Amino acid sequence: MTNKSQIIVKEATLDDLKAVQDLSHQLFEHDVPFEPALNMNWSYEESGRKFFVNAISDDDKCCFVAFNDEEIVGYLAGSVKPGQDYEKGTVAELDNTLVLDEYRGLGVGRKLFDEFKIWAKSKKVDRLYVSAYFDNSDAVAFYHAVGFKNYGWSLKMEVNNDEES
Q1: Is the dihedral of CA 107, 109, 112, 118 positive or negative?
Q2: pLDDT tens for residues 91-118?
Q3: What CATH number should be reported for the domain holding residue 55?
């Protein structure tokens, strides 16, 4: 059994790209019940690959990976973003994250988030943002546990299909 002290979080390198893409794909598999319009191949397509290469390489983006021995068991990608014109200050967004099921509840997600928060502070951001699917109660509970507060609602309406909601 793995314990929290065996997990090491590091900045991802390009050598970690394939593992991060695989974890991102697992995230999409987990999230597709909440958002059926997800492109399940995105993690491996050029746009997904570019997203993660940039997260690993760009100064205003980050990607952290959690290791148990040699195995990557979780990742977190984030970025500094311009704030809304009507808000003061700068922001960082936790873009996406996943911890393998068998490592949940061991503090891996919190370790990844703590590294993200340290990184964001080093970038002099004023606020952190994250979005989660409304019905993804596990993700929402995790984000609350690390200190996020409910902020607003994001609503969506399908208009180009025959189904009525």
Answers
A1: negative
A2: 999 999 999 999 999 999 999 999 999 9
A3: 3.40.630.30
